[in-house]
Fold this protein.
Amino acid sequence: MTYAKVILSLIIIGAILGVGTIQFHYAEGWSWTDSFYFTGMTLTTVGYGDLHPTKDSTKMFTVFYTIAAIGAFLYALTNVTEELFKKRFENMYAFFRRRANNNKKIDPQKKLHHF
């Protein structure tokens, strides 16, 4: 497992969440919790609608931030998931490959019956 890829991806996710949280906190005057909540709901595309930008500059930021951040967020999340499950899938593949190879072995002591 390449931990560097996982760590980089987690840093990217943290940076994306941090940038959005800071921007919404200062631009809209929201609490840190509300800013983080809005950022998370925006990045996961849930968007409950209970919070929304009220200033034109924040609305513009949200549009471009969402376009850029969702792609980067999903890329980083995919990297983390891939690395976490890669070993499990490799083990499963090896198990089934061994099992398939064991079934192909012919015992020389066995007599073959042809019908």
About this structure: Residues 3-104 form a domain with the Helix Hairpins fold (CATH 1.10.287.70). The chain has a mean pLDDT of 85.
